[in-house]
Design a protein that fits this description.
By secondary structure, this protein is mainly alpha-helical. It contains 4 helices and no strands. It has helices spanning about 1-10, 20-30, 40-50, 50-65.
């Protein structure tokens, strides 16, 4: 899980809401426009979807071990 987060925020670790990859992920998952995503919206999205995001991170860990 930590490895995925580390790679997904490369270059944006102190401001992950500006990461093009994470913006794209939020946009495809929620339909919110990536270009207009703000700090507050990013953290609201993470908080309100934390259970699903946790499951996703556990899945990426399993896939990394098997791949």
């Amino acid at each position: 899980m930590i490895r995925f987060l580390w790679l997904a925020t490369k270059g944006y670790r102190f401001h992950p809401w500006e990461s093009p990859y994470l913006r794209w992920r939020v946009e495809t998952y929620s339909g919110r426009k990536a270009e207009t995503l703000t700090f507050r919206e990013f953290w609201q999205f993470l908080w309100s979807n934390r259970a699903n995001l946790g499951r996703y991170l556990r899945w990426t860990s399993r896939m990394a071990r098997h791949g």
